[in-house]
Specification:
Elements: H1 8-22, E1 61-71, E2 84-86, E3 91-97, E4 106-110, E5 119-124, E6 135-141, E7 149-152, E8 161-164, E9 174-181, E10 184-188
Parallel strand pairs: 1-9, 1-10
Antiparallel strand pairs: 1-2, 1-5, 3-4, 3-6, 7-10, 8-9
């Protein structure tokens, strides 16, 4: 029986071994942190600056403009001083004749269809072919057979010369703005024809 007695130091050793066997191996006196605890991070880098492409180059151009009227007819926009009305959707041709350096090329461009005020425009990008002294403006087409007889110029084979329009504000890139002389081209009803109905 004496051998079964456990003295103080041995008792402490036995208690330590017992606790080590009973308690889980990860047990500790500190509190574990949750698995998804917050970790501070560096701020996100700012987005890259947008790519700024260089401004597009403006192609040089010559502008030729004017108006087309229907003579003697009282349509919308009738001008009593001219005895004529704007002729929408009519067109003109700009023809420029080259010289020996351009190997006698011919530039032939059709204008935009005239708007409700009879206004047309031609944009010439072939600057080498443009010379106001060798360019002419011709009547090309009328939107109605009721006002399709050439009046100004009266001969469709004769064109109007060009003069520089000093009152116009040139658009960006324009090397010059010109208009025919006189500025208005005109059709008129043929012999015995009636004017188009007012639109």
């Amino acid at each position: 029986m004496a051998s079964m007695k456990i003295h103080g130091a041995e008792a402490i050793m036995v208690a330590v071994i017992f606790l080590a066997a009973v308690l889980p191996s990860h047990a500790s006196t500190t509190v574990d942190e949750p698995a998804n605890y917050y970790k501070p991070t560096a701020p996100a880098p700012p987005p890259p600056a947008p790519y700024s492409s260089p401004p597009p180059q403006v192609q040089p151009v010559i502008v030729v403009h004017g108006v087309i009227y229907c003579k003697y007819c009282r349509l919308r926009g009738y001008n009593s001083g001219m005895e004529a009305s704007p002729l929408p959707n009519a067109t003109v041709s700009l023809v420029c004749y080259g010289d020996e350096e351009s190997k006698y090329r011919v530039l032939n461009q059709t204008s935009t269809a005239a708007d409700e005020n009879g206004y047309f425009i031609v944009m010439v990008y072939d600057l080498e072919m443009f010379d106001r002294h060798s360019c002419r403006v011709y009547l090309r087409s009328s939107p109605t057979p009721l006002c399709a007889k050439p009046f100004l110029p009266s001969n469709p084979k004769l064109g109007l010369t060009l003069v520089r329009d000093r009152k116009a504000t040139p658009p960006r890139g324009a090397r010059g703005v010109f208009h025919p002389r006189p500025e208005a081209l005109m059709y008129t009803p043929g012999t015995g024809a009636k004017c188009p109905p007012p639109y």
